[in-house]
Amino acid sequence: MATVPKVDVGTDYKEKYGFFVPEDFVFKAKRGLNPEIVKEISWMKKEPEWMLKMRLRSLEIFRKKPMPTWGADLSVIDFENIFYYLKASDKQSTSWEDLPPDIKKTYDRLGVPEAERKFLAGVSAQYESEVVYHSLQKELTAKGVIFTDTDSALRDHPELFKEYFGTVIPPADNKFSALNTAVWSGGSFIYVPKGVRVEIPLQAYFRINAENMGQFERTLIICDEGSFVHYIEGCTAPIYTTDSLHSAVVEIIVKKGARCRYTTIQNWSTNVFNLVTKRAMAYADATMEWVDGNLGSQITMKYPSVYLMEPGAKGDVLSVAFAGKGQHQDAGGKMIHVAPNTTSTITSKSISKGGGRTSYRGHIKMYPDAKNSKSFVKCDALLLDDESRSDTYPYNDVDAENVTLGHEATVSKVSDEQLFYLMSRGITRNEAETMIVNGFIEPFTKELPLEYAVELNRLIQLEMEGSVG
Amino acid sequence: MPFTLQTVDEIASLHGEPDWLRKRRRSAFEAFERLPIPSRIDEEWRRTDVSSLDVAKFSEFEHRNGAAPAEPLEGVAGSTTMRGSEFESVRLDPELERAGVILEPISVAAQKHPELVQTLLFTQVRPDRDRFAALHAAFFADGTFLYVPDGVVIEKPIVGQVFSAEGGTAVLPHTLIVAGRGSQFNYLDEYLSPADEAAGYKSGSAELFLGEGARVGYVAVQKWGRNAWHLADQRARLDKEASLRLFNVTLGARFSKTRVEASLQGEGSDAELKAIYFASGEQFFDFHTLQDHQVGNTRSDLLFKGALQDVARTVYAGLIRIEKGAARSDAYQANRNLVLSDHAKATSIPMLEIDNNDVRCTHGATVGPVDPISMFYLQSRGIPEATARRMIVQGFFGEVLERIPFEHARRLVETELEARLG
C-alpha cells in the first residue's frame, strides 16, 4: 500500500509550492506621511503623471480636512506612526510563533487550511489557489471580463481606469477617502462588458497578487449595461495584522440594467481601526447590493452607500455587525435617491456582547427629483448582556413628492421564553444562545455562498463561547 | 432694553426678585455672552438655520398697552393670563387655594416660596445648554408657577395663556410646575398671537417636576403669529411611579424649535410624549426629543405626528437613551409625517442609545403622501377629492388630538386644522 507522504504545509510551503518572495527590492518602508513618501509610492509603481498629481492633491486635502467628530473616537490614531506603503516582502516580519494565541486557536477551530492561515495572519505574503485562478482567468478573458489588481489595471488598462477612477468617491469626499487616494495600493479592478453575466462569484482570494488585502486598498468595479457580477471580499477567519489603520475605498459603477453584488466579510484583529468608504452609482434599472459583515476590529466605521442616479435604480444593503469586548462597530448604509421611481432597502442586524458597542448609522436622502421613490430601513439589535450597548442613528431626509419612507428598529435581548424552550429540550444555555444568535442573523447568512455561511456560523459559535478576542 | 447685564438687573429689580434669582439670571447672562451662535457644524443644528436670526433686533419687551382683558375661561379650575411680559390676571378656585394649591407668577412665588422655586427653577431647563436657552433664563419675563400639594386631585384643567400682539419684541414666558406626591391634574399652556403679527422672538419653556405617584397631563399649544421665531424647552423630571402625559401642539411661528424631554429618574415612572404639528407656507419646525431612562422599570411612549404642505420643512430628531442600570425598561418612539405637497420637506431621525440588555425598545419613522388607496376608496364613495383629503388628514391627527384633556384646546386645534386644509 502506497503511503501518501505527509506534507507539512506550514513550514515548507515555499519549497513545496515554488513560492518565492523577491529579495532585491529597492524600496525601504518609512513611517509617516509626507509628499516624499507619496512620490516614492508613485515612483515605485511607475505610475503616470496624472496619478501622482492626484495623490499629491489628495494628500493636501487630507491634511486640510478635520477629523470627523461623530461616530467612534478616532483621536488615538497617530498618522505619523504608520507605514503607508509596504512591499509584500516587508510584511514577513511577523512569525507564526508571535501570533496571539487566540488568533491561532480560532484558525484551528474554523478549520482554516494551514497555508491559508499563514496568509491571513500576515505571516506569509501570499496564498494561492493557482489552479482555480488560472481556469477562471481563461474563462473571464474569453468573455472580455477584466479581473485584476488595481495597480496592474492602472498599468494595463489606463484609459478605462482614468475614465472611472475617483469619479464615484472623489478624494475630497472625506478625510479618509483623501488619505486612501494619496497612498492607495492594491485592491481589485473588475470590468464586466455589456450583457456579460459572470456566473461564479469573483473572490479576491483567487488572485495571485499579494496586495489584495492591503492597508489602503482601492477597488474599482465597472458593470457595463445589462451585465452581472458578484464580488466577494474578505473571509470569516480573523485577519491578523500589526497595522493599526485600514482605510479602503471601494467604487462601483452599475450601468443601465446591470446588477452588482458586493459581499464583504471582514474579521480584522481587534487592534485595527477599520475606516472604509464604499459607494456605488446605480443607473437606470440597475441593481446594487451590498452584503456587509463586520466582525473584528477595534473600531469599524463603514457605511456602504448607493447613489440611485436614474429611474428604476435599486439599492440594497444587508449588514451584520458583531461587537465583542472593547469593540465598537459603527456601521450602516446610505441611500441617496436622485432620480424618480428608485427603491432602496437597508437591513441591519447587530449583536453586542461582553461590553461591546454596535451603532447603526444610516442616511436616506430623497432629492426633489426622486418622485415616487420608496425606501425602507430595518434595524434589529440584540444585546447579549447588560454591559453591552447598542445605538441607532438613522437620518432620513425627504425633499421629494409622493415618496414613501419607512424606518423601524428594535433592540432586544435573547428572550427567556426561547432560552427556556431550547434548554428544556436538553440544550445547554450556551448552545441555545448560539442557536438564537445564528437564527437572528440568518437573513444575512442565507445570502452568503455556502462555505462562508458555514464558517460564519462556526465563528459566531466561537464568539459566543467567549473563546475569541 | 437691549440684552445687557444692566437689563438683567432692571428686570430683577422691577420684579423685586430675591438675590438668588438675580444671581441665577446673571450667571445665565454670562452663558449667553460666552456661548456662540449655534452653527450648522453642530449636529443638533445641522438642518436648522438660525443665521438670519438677530436677537438684538427683538430686544424690546412687550407691555400690556391697554389691551382689553381676556374673557375668563369656562370650565377651568384656575387660569393665568399674560400679555407680553406682564401678568393680566391670576384666577384660582378658592377651594383649591384652601387645599394648598399655589398658582402665582414666578416672580411672586420666588419671594413667597423660595423652598420650592429656588431649588427647582432652571434645574431641568439648563441655561448653559445653548445661547438661546441662556437668553431665555437671563431675560425671562415672568411666567406661571403651579404647585399642587401631595394627594390633591384637581378635576378641571388649569390654563396658562400668553398673548402677544406687537411683534418686534421679545416675549419670554417660563412655566414651572411642581406636582406633589400622588397629586393629579391637567395643565395647559397656550401661546397665542395674531397670525399676521410682525416678526418677534418668543420662547415658552416649561419645567415639570413630578413627585412620587403624581399623575400630570401637560399640554402646550403654540400658535404664535406666522412671522415669529420660537425657541423653547419643555422638560419633565419624573420621580418614582410618576406618570406624565405631555402633548405638544405646534401650529404657529415661521421658525419653531422645541426640545421635548422626559427624564425618568424614579422606578416605575411612565412618560407619554405626544405631539401634532402642521407646517404650511414657509414654516420651519424643529423638534428634538429625549426619553432618558435613568433607572429601571420605566416606560416611555413617544408619538409625533405631523403634516406638511406648501414649501414647509420639518425636522424631527429624537433619542431614546437607556442608561446602564435601567433594566426592564420599555421605550417606544414613532414619528409619522404626512407630506401633502410637492415641495415640502421632512427629516426624521429617530435614534436609540441602549446600554442595557433587559429592555424593550422599538422605534419607527415614516414619511409619505396621503395613502392613494384610502383616497381611492373615499372618492369611489362619491366624496370629492378635497374633502377626502381633509378627512384623511383629520383622521391622521385624530388619534392624538382626541387625547388632549381639554375641550377648549381641542377646538382651538381643530379650527386651525380646518382653516389650513381649506
Can you give a write-up of this model?
The complex is a heterodimer of chains A (469) and B (422). In chain A, strands 1, 2, 4, 6, 7, 9, 11, 12, 14, 16 and 18 form an eleven-stranded mixed β-sheet that branches. Chain A has 469 residues and is α/β, with parallel strands linked by helices. Chain A is globular. Helix content of chain A is 28%, strand content 29%. Chain A contains 13 helices and 19 strands. In chain A, helix 2 (35-44) runs antiparallel to helix 3 (49-64) and helix 7 packs across helix 8. Chain A has helices at residues 9-17, 35-44, 49-64, 101-110, 114-120, 130-143, 150-156, 158-164, 175-183, 416-424, 429-440, 442-445, 450-465, and strands spanning 146-149, 188-192, 202-203, 218-223, 228-234, 245-246, 249-254, 259-266, 273-282, 287-294, 299-302, 305-308, 314-323, 328-337, 343-352, 357-366, 374-383, 389-398, 404-413. With 422 residues, chain B is α/β, with parallel strands linked by helices. Chain B has two domains: 5-266, no CATH class; 371-422, no CATH class. Chain B contains nine helices and 22 strands. Chain B has helices at residues 5-15, 19-34, 94-98, 106-112, 114-120, 131-139, 372-380, 385-401, 407-421, and strands at 60-61, 78-83, 86-92, 102-105, 142-148, 158-163, 169-171, 173-179, 184-192, 201-202, 205-210, 215-223, 229-238, 243-250, 255-264, 270-279, 284-293, 299-308, 313-322, 329-339, 345-354, 359-368. In chain B, the strands form two sheets. In chain B, strands 1, 4, 5, 7, 8, 10, 11, 13, 15, 17, 19 and 21 form a twelve-stranded mixed β-sheet that branches. A ten-stranded mixed β-sheet of chain B has the order 3-2-6-9-12-14-16-18-20-22. In chain B, a hairpin with a 2-residue loop joins strand 2 and strand 3. Chain B starts with a helix and ends with a helix. The model of chain B has no long low-confidence stretch (mean pLDDT 93). At the A-B interface, strand 18 and strand 19 of A face strand 21 and strand 22 of B.
